[in-house]
Design brief:
about 300 residues, alpha+beta, lpxc deacetylase, domain 1, five-stranded mixed sheet, 22 strands, about 20% helix, globular, Ribosomal_Su5_D2-typ_SF, UDP-acyl_N-AcGlcN_deAcase_N, UDP-3-O-acyl-N-acetylglucosamine deacetylase, zinc, lipid metabolism
Length: about 300
Amino acid sequence: MAAFSAVKSSRLISWRSTGRLQQTLAGCVELSGKTLHSGKICEVKIWPEFAGCGRYFDFQSKLVPASVDFAEESPLCTTLCKDGFRVRTVEHLLSALEAKGVDNCRIEIKSLDSEVGDVEVPILDGSAGKWVEVIEQMGLKVAVDQSGNSCDKLAPYLNEPMHVWRNDSFVAAFPSPKVLISYGIDFPQVPAIGCQWFSSAPFNGSFYAKQIASARTFCLYEEVERMHDAGLIKGGSLENAIVCSVSKGWLNPPLRFPDEPCRHKVLDLIGDLSLSATSGSQGFPVAHIVAYKAGHALNAAFARLIK
């Protein structure tokens, strides 16, 4: 993490009650599909879990907590690794679980042709929309512990501003009684994208489902060959990403929102900051988050400050 700068003190965060009880799914939900980087078919089943267990992946009977303690830097996605077992591209799924309040769950993941010790969450249509759809169809229930008791849901509240940055990119947070998000991106060399800013109303699961979840991942057409040569986006297509050319603009319109790229960055941010959660708590801080040109690595650095 030497490439990042951060401002931190032990007084910045207070973990306090949200006034709500921890939740889990009312039953199992399942989705399968092609993965973005490996191009293989993967199946995910999300099972209800006891209060206090939090969210974790079950891969080949090895448990990998959805915690920033196990996040490792990887190109173009967020990867969790424990004891040599890796789960890649977790950010969209975790974003939906965090935003929709699924505090505790076991995420069983498998691939018929995966390499030993390595698996990837399906990319689906490049957004979190399908995850939100199956979560809403199944519904939630109050999670109880193994003694049958419900548990209070905690969240990190900011007492002072905090931030991390690298060059001209940053993630900052300011004390606020509600969750607010402001996010900016800048692609001056790509006229169809340019500089965009998105700001949320007071953030909740309903706002996320309507305004964020369906925003798809995006890439530049001129970078596709380089990414292929690096062994990435083997499963990428116009069906699971929006692709923009510097000279020709969007190759697979229409966009779902005029600022869809910026909204997708908000989606990623929520998924990455969910990794601050432990024991069924809320990972995303109750604060006004302001981010600019932040990627997965910078998001993870900020999540470590919260944790």
